[in-house]
Design goal:
Blueprint lengths: L1 H23 L2 H6 L6 E6 L2 E10 L2 H6 L11 E11 L2 E2 L8 E6 L5 E8 L7 E2 L4 E8 L2 H5 L6 E3 L12
Parallel strand pairs: 2-3
Antiparallel strand pairs: 1-2, 1-9, 3-8, 4-7, 5-6, 5-8
Length: about 170
């Protein structure tokens, strides 16, 4: 039993370390980094973070999302892009890992966060207000980093963004 607990602690420490590395990256590095389709930047009271991402911007891509993914690096996520702002709701059908769902408006400003969505749960998880972007990351990471309402997303798909690509 002790070795199992030690393994869990090691995994948790690796997860925390990866998250802290993302946050501790200097602002200058973010300012100098270019906007790319495979990278999403976030900024808020916590500082700044950078994630490697896949984009789901078609119906079939959004429907599949992160289904059947068995594990995901701490610095990875998926950005769901809708054609226009609207009421959205997600569920966890065929999703194998807990996820945080970050709901953002047309300007890429976070409106609400659902933390630790339960794998396989069919309960509807709604965004609050008119949502155009949903960013999914590993469960529990959003509160660990301090991601919440008011956090800004930066990505080329976010037109008219509060934090625009240069």
């Amino acid at each position: 039993m002790g070795s199992r607990i030690d393994a869990l602690k090691t995994n948790l420490n690796s997860f925390v370390a990866a998250a802290l590395v993302m946050v501790m990256t200097s602002g200058a590095a973010f300012a100098a980094s270019e906007c790319r389709d495979d990278v999403l930047h976030m900024r808020g009271d916590f500082g700044e973070a950078r994630f490697t991402i896949d984009v789901a911007d078609t119906g079939p891509e959004r429907n599949r999302g992160l289904m059947f993914v068995e594990k995901m690096p701490a610095s990875y996520g998926m950005l769901f892009v809708f054609e226009r702002p609207r009421q959205v709701a997600f569920w966890m059908k065929n999703t194998l890992i807990p996820l945080d769902m970050i709901f953002a408006d047309a300007a890429g400003v976070v409106q609400n966060v659902h933390v630790n969505a339960v794998p396989g749960d069919l309960t509807s998880i709604p965004g609050k207000g008119q949502i155009k972007y949903v960013f999914e990351i590993n469960g529990g990471l959003a509160p660990m980093l301090g991601i919440g309402p008011g956090t800004q997303l930066r990505h080329p798909a976010i037109e008219g963004a509060a934090w625009a690509c240069e």
